[in-house]
Design a protein that fits this description.
By secondary structure, the protein is α/β, with parallel strands linked by helices. It has 16 helices and 25 strands.
Length: 627
Amino acid sequence: MRFTAGAEEEVPVLIVGGGGAGLTSSMLLARLGVEHLLVSARPQTSDLPKAHVLNQRAMEVLDDVGVADAIAERSTPPEQMAATAFYAGFAGPAPDYGRRLARLECWGAGGADESWRAASPWRQLNLPEIRLEPLLKTRAEELSPGRIRFGHELTGLEQDGEGVRATIRDNAAGSSYVVRCQYLLGADGGRRVASLAGAGYEGLGVVTQTATLHVSADFSPWATDPDVLIRWIFSPQAGVLVVMVPMGPERWGPQSEEWVIHLNYPAGDPRAQSDAQVETDAREALGVPDLPMKIHKITRWAVEAVMASAFRAGRVFLLGDAAHRHPPTGGLGLTSAIHDAQNLCWKLALVLAGHASPALLDTYEAERRPVDQRNAQRSLENAVNHLAIGAALGVSHENTPAQNMEQLRRIWSGRPEDAGYRSGVLRAVRAQSMEFSELNVEYGYSYESAAVVPDGSEPPVPADDVRVYEPSTRPGAPLPHAWIEDEDGNRRPVKDLVAPGRFLLIAGEDGHAWCDAARQLATEAGIPLDALRIGHLDGDYHDPRCAWQRHRQIASDGAILVRPDRFIAWRHPAASGEPRAALAAALSQILARPVGRAASPARPRPLSQQPPSGPLARVPHHPPARP
C-alpha cells in the first residue's frame, strides 16, 4: 500500500509497533469494534527466537482474539515442556560430562499440576516469537484488512488539544504521510515513541551481558531428557553457565531441529562483540568443537530490568517493551505486554464509544505499572538466583576444567564430607521454583485503581506470595476459573461468559434482584452490561462440581461485577435493599461518569475539551491445550 507525500488520514487509534504488544492491541481493538491503524518500522515480523513462554492468562487473551488454537498447534507438546534441569556440562572427555544435577517441574508440569489446571482452562504454552509473531500478524490482518502496515516508520509526533498528529514514512516508497488520531499506542519496544513523547527510562539493575546464538544442529546425543524444555549447563570447560532451549519448529525435545544457546559474559567484555569468538566460546563451553552447526544469527543483550518513567504522556500510551523491559528469566516480558494491551484496549473502547469518561484511561498506569514493575523485579531475582546456584556449585572460569569437574562430582560422590555441599546446591536449585512455579506472580496479581470498587475486605495472604495462587472474587482480583454448564449440559469455562467489551454481573442462584437491576441500568444508561446467575441447582448456568461456589465468596443472593478484562470490579456479598442504587454507584465510579435513571449515556467529548495529561502536551474451545 502506497501513500503520496502530504497525504493525511484520520483514525481513532494509531498503534506504533508490530510485535506482541502492538499486534495483540490491534486484534483486541478489532474485536471491540474500534477502528485503528498499526504501523511498524520493521519490514516483517521478528527474525529472533527470543521470547517463547506464553503463560495461562496470556493464552486466555489470545483465545479472545481467535489465535490461540493456531498457537497451540505449533507449541511445544506438553510432555516436552514439563521440566527444567541443571547439568554438569554438556559433552566432554568423560562419561559424567552432561550428568544431570537436578530437575524441577516447570509451568504446571505440562498440565499435570492440579493447581495450574484449577487456575485456567488453558495450560502454559511455548512458541518462539520468530514463529509466534507471524501467526499474530496473520490474525490481525484477518480482523483488520489493510490496516496492518509493516515497513511504515513513525518519524514525528506532536500533540495538542485536538489529538495526536503522527508523521509516518513508507520506507519502500520513500514517501511520508500524516495520521491524525485521538490516541496513540507506543508498542515499538522503546525505539522512538517514548522519546518523542518525553518519557525516559529508569534502570532497575544490570546482572550480566549475554550473547545468544540461534542455531540448527543435532544435539540429541547429549540432550537426552525428553521432558526438559530449558537446560542450565554449568560448563567445566569454560567455568560459566550456558543455557540451551529447543526451538522446534517441527520436532521438540532432544530431536529439535533448532536451538538457542545463551552464553553469559561480564559487562563490557570485548569477546562478546565478535561473532567468531562467541561461536568458539559456545563450542568450547558445550564441548562440541567439531559438531556441524548452522548459525542463523548471533545477538547481544544486557540482562537488566528497565521501566519507563511514565506509561502515559497526554494521549500517548506506552505498553510492552516500550514501557518495561525484563530479563527473560521467568518468561514475564511478552506475557506482560499482552496483559498491558488487554488492560488498555477495553478502556479505550468504552471511552471512544462514550460509555466512560476519559478519566477511565488514567487507571491504565495505576493498574499496570505496579504489576509490570513487580514482574521486572521478579525477572531480575530469577536471574540472580541462577548466579547463586553457580556460586554454590563453585564452578568458575578461573578454575581448570578438571577442577570444575571435580567440584561438580561432589554432588554425586556419596562422601560424607560432601553432604553439606550437595545439600546447599540442591537447596539453591529448589529455590529456582521462584522462576518455574511462580503461579501467583503470573496469575494472582490484583489491581487497585478508581476502576475497582473496594469492599473493605483484606487481601488474601497466600502460603507463598510467589508460588501459591489463591482464587478470590475480592475486587481487583482476576475472575476465578470454574467449569460450568448450560441447561443442555454444554461445558465451558466461566471466563467465556464475559463478552468482548462488556461488563458481566454474576449473581448467586437467588440473585434475581441483582440481575433485574443490571438489566435496567444497561437499558437506561446505555451500558454494555450483561447479567446472569450461577448455582449448583438453580441459575442460568450450573456449577456441577461446585468449583464456582468454592471461589465466589458471596451468598446465594449476592453478586459480583466483572470487568471486560475479567477482573473483579465490585462485589456485594448478599442481597441489598436497593440493588439498583448499589450497582449504579459502583458503575459510576468505574466509568468515571454518573450512571442512573437521571443520567443519560455519556457522549465522547470533543477533542478540544480533552486536554492532554502527562509529562508533555506537545512534542516533535481448545483440544491441544485445555485439560
